Every structure is written in structure tokens, then in C-alpha cells.
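ok so i was messing around last nite and threw this chain in just to see what happens. nothing serious, just curious
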Amino acid sequence: MRQSLRAALVFAACASFPLATFPQSYPTKPIRLVVPYPAGGASDSYARVFGPKFTEAWGQQVVVENRPGAGGNIGSALVAKAAPDGYTILLNTAGQAIAPALYKKLPYDPLKDLQPVVILVRSVQVLVVHPSVGANSVKELVALAKAQPGKINFGSNGIGSGPHLAGELFRSLAAVDVLHIPYKGDAGLAPALLANEVQMSFLPSPAAIPLVKSGKLRALGVASATRSRFLPEVPPVAQEGVPGYDMSTWAGLFVPGGTPRDIVHKISAEGVRMIKSPEVQKILDKWGVEALGIGVEAFEARYRADIEKYARLIRQAGIRQQD
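result:
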């Protein structure tokens, strides 16, 4: 009798655990892949490629859901507050690490409520200038800016954006006086550059490469520690008289904090496998984006380090926190 009772209690205890805690059974239902930006942007494009690949691998539908607003905070908060079961995944960029310092108050804790899973890609920003600018290298641009303090403008696609912070870091490390002009999104920035309303900017490689190759803009440097294989002739800014400069950006996956570790690792492993596939790499090559596939622990460390880096940069630049 006691053995029967003991067996019944063990069975009941096992049955009380949700299936999602066992990695071999996950996933057993459709998954939401949340993009915190509008359709048509880089993050959305990534999701439209990666989502179907996860669907193929798992046999469960992965549905891309755009939740834009508040600089990405609406979509991030949705995932942060979702059930920690692996069925709501966030695809975000380095903007996720910028948000804690840029906004006065977030509706979630960026470290406790979001669990980094995998860095999928790296997008290199490119320092570009209008062809009329009398500089053919980063060193010449720095010299020109120092000779004409306050006369050169650099554009961005918004306050606190990657291009904005890339420009602020350049201004700080190069010790130059250049004026920041923010625009509303990529749609406003590129035409301003082409019209010479602003003389320089740091553009993500997918946007920069076509304009550089067509001769509409001139590339002076890449904002990464090493050369980009998509623009091999363009040197890193750090090797052109601005030592320590590195503003490469990433896109990766997050799940709600508290998601079982085995599920986190299962999603991460599939992300690494998927991003290394020849079919996906061929698509990324067309965009000028590098496949990475950096796993859980390394991403956790990078995420924390980037939060600290961007907070320091925002303080140094005197960027006012947004509501």
C-alpha cells in the first residue's frame, strides 16, 4: 500500500511540471518571434528569414509579430513580461543594450527580465561622407574637422540610435567638434546625406554598401576592430588615427527571464546551426551582414558589457534621457 502511495505521489509530482521544462519535448506549439520595430527594417528582414528556418527545424510554426513603438521598448516589454516558457522570443539589435541608459524608466528590468540566447549576426557600420567633402581618409577627415570646428555635421537616424552613438564616440576619441543632426529613421537620413545636408554619418553596412559602390557616398572607414569582408578595401577607423574605436552592432534573440536553462540552450543551439547554413549565409552576404552564432554565456557577457559601454558613452556625450 505504501509503495503504491509513494508511486502515485512521484507520478503526480512529475505530472505537475510543464512539458516546456523538458528540452526534448520543446516546442509543442507555435512560437511568437517578436520584432520591436516596424515591418521593412533590418530586424524585420532578419526575422522573415530566420522564422521559417526555425519552423522547418522544429515542426512548429514560428510567427513573426511586429510590435513597434517607444524606440523598441514596447516589443521588448511584451517579451519581458511573457510567460518564461520559450514560446515568446524577442529579436532585437544592440539597441536593446542602449535602452537602459537612453530612457529614464523602462517598463521592465533589462537584465533580470530578458535572457540573452544567441547573437545571430553582426552588422558593421561604415563611416561615409558626401563626395564633396575634401577628405579621402579618416585621418584627412579628422584634420579637416579640427581645422573647421563646428562646420561639419554628422547625421543619424535618431537620438540614441547606433549611428548617433557611433558619431559621438568618433567625436570623443578623435577630439573633433562636429554637430549632430538627427533624422526620423533611415528614410530621412540617406536623402539628407545624398543632398549634402549632413556631410558624414555612420551607416549600417546594408544601407552603406550600395551607396558606396554606386559612387553616391565615399567610405572612409568601418566601425569595427577588423576589416569587413564586404568592403575589404576600407580600413577600420581604429587603424586610421582613432585608436580604440569599435562600434560594430549585433542582432540576437532573447527570451523572458526565468525561462528554463535547457530551453534557452536548445533555442541557442538551433540559432547557431541555422545561421551557419549555406542558404542563410548566402542571403546575409547579399545584405553585407556577417553571420556570427555566439551562444548563451558569451552573449550574456557581451550584453552586460555593452549596457555599461553605451551608458558610459551616453553620459560622456551629454545625451538627454528620453521619457
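not much to say yet. Residues 5-21 have pLDDT under 50 and may be disordered.
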